[in-house]
């Protein structure tokens, strides 16, 4: 899957105004919008609209029309993330990351593991999910909270699903917290391969199965489910679209952990899941992203 963003540069006040304008125009589509500071000294900010698939001039033109009155001189640029580059992350040189009791680290940082840590050792790989991103860290913390809040674990209510597993980090986290079976899936075969390598590396092959699947299009889900816990760190729009499938594969009383959602999209996502009878329990906020627990 390739992804891209259209963006323009402005100052801090302009970024806020630009975000408001775009939010009003694109709120029904669930396209992620962000602002970020590019140069603190010069006060330069970027306002971006992220979109899946191949770049589309229609989207650029719509953004241009939306901001034309207030930003007549703005240039709208395109950044394409390519086939898998947007998730490409190497662990080499990355520092270990703590989230709750989890420590995610590369083999070169094995010494950083303390006695009570739940350690996850990842090989340098091409899949997203090293713990450095706020959404991964948020999910790690939430998985710990949810699985510990039920001392019997989700065992009684079925297995765990990690949808969009990337490096496999969240599946490995769940497997560390209880003797649960985990299905880890990804749309990207490269990610599935990396996840499988990491599962082997962490000696969890008996617990975690890695499968390539788009959304819920595989018999692996009915074979392994229904699930007592479904974790999905993807993006708001696909998550909203998959709400009915998530409901269908969730065991009665099961929990859902969602991330990859910008704070501004939280209500839309909650509404989509409320429509399926799945209700908000708790939200964690990190760097503009939210991780949500529902059941
Ligand atoms: N779970 C990891 C990775 C999150 S990145 C973490 O929390 O760090 C999101 C992953 O979801 C990517 O690997 C991407 O390939 C995958 N993905 C995106 N859309 C998907 C879909 N419709 N079905 C399954 N996987 C998807």
What strand order characterises the main sheet? 10-9-8-11-12-14-13
Low-confidence stretches: 84-93
CATH architecture of the largest domain: 3-Layer(aba) Sandwich
The SSE string, one letter per element, is EHEEHEEEEHEHEHEHEHHEHEE
Q: Helical proportion?
A: 25-40%
GO molecular function: methyltransferase activity
InterPro entries: Ribosomal_L11_MeTrfase_PrmA (IPR050078), Ribosomal_PrmA_MeTrfase (IPR004498), SAM-dependent_MTases_sf (IPR029063)
Family: Belongs to the methyltransferase superfamily. PrmA family.
Function: Methylates ribosomal protein L11.
What can you tell me about this protein's structure?
This protein is an alpha/beta fold. It has two domains: 4-80, Ribosomal protein S10 (Alpha-Beta Plaits), CATH 3.30.70; 127-294, Rossmann fold (3-Layer(aba) Sandwich), CATH 3.40.50. It is built from nine helices and 14 strands. It has helices at residues 12-26, 57-67, 134-149, 169-177, 189-201, 220-224, 236-241, 243-249, 266-274, and strands at residues 3-10, 33-39, 44-52, 77-82, 97-99, 102-105, 118-121, 159-163, 182-186, 208-212, 227-233, 250-262, 280-286, 289-294. A seven-stranded mixed beta sheet has the order 10-9-8-11-12-14-13, with helices on both faces. Strands 2-3-1-4 form a four-stranded antiparallel beta sheet, covered by helices on one side. It has a three-stranded mixed beta sheet with strand order 5-6-7. Strand 8, helix 4 (169-177) and strand 9 form a beta-alpha-beta unit. Mean pLDDT is 86; it is low at 84-93. Bound molecules: S-adenosyl-L-homocysteine. S-adenosyl-L-homocysteine (SAH) is lined by residues 87, 127-129, 135-136, 139, 163-166, 169-170, 185-188, 191, 214-215, 233-234, 238. Keywords: Cytoplasm, Methyltransferase, Ribonucleoprotein, Ribosomal protein, S-adenosyl-L-methionine, Transferase. It is found in: Cytoplasm. Methylates ribosomal protein L11. Its main location: cytoplasm.
């Amino acid at each position: 899957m390739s992804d891209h963003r259209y963006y323009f540069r402005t100052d801090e006040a302009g970024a806020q105004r630009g975000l408001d304008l775009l939010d009003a125009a694109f709120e029904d589509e669930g396209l992620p919008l962000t602002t970020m500071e590019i140069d603190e000294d010069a006060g330069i900010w970027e306002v971006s609209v992220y979109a899946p698939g191949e770049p589309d001039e229609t989207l650029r033109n719509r953004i241009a029309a939306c901001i034309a009155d207030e930003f007549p001189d703005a240039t709208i640029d395109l950044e394409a993330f390519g086939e898998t580059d947007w998730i490409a992350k190497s662990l080499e040189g990355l520092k270990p990351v703590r989230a709750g009791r989890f420590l995610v680290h590369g083999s070169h940082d094995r010494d950083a593991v303390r006695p009570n840590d739940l350690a996850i050792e990842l090989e340098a790989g091409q899949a997203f999910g090293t713990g450095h991103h706020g959404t991964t860290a948020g999910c790690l913390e939430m998985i710990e909270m949810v699985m510990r809040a039920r001392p019997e674990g989700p065992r009684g209510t079925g297995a765990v699903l990690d949808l969009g597993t990337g490096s496999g980090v969240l599946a490995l986290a769940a497997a560390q917290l209880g003797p649960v079976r985990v299905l880890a899936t990804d749309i990207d075969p490269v990610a599935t391969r990396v996840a499988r390598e990491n599962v082997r590396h962490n000696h969890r092959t008996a617990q975690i199965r890695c499968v390539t699947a788009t959304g819920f299009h595989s018999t692996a889900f009915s074979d392994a489910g229904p699930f007592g816990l479904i974790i999905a760190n993807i993006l708001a729009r696909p998550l909203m679209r998959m709400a009915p499938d998530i409901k269908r594969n969730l065991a009665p009383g099961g929990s859902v952990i969602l991330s990859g959602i910008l704070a501004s999209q939280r209500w839309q996502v909650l509404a989509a899941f409320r429509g399926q009878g799945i209700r908000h329990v708790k939200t964690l906020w990190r760097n503009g992203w939210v991780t949500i627990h529902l059941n």
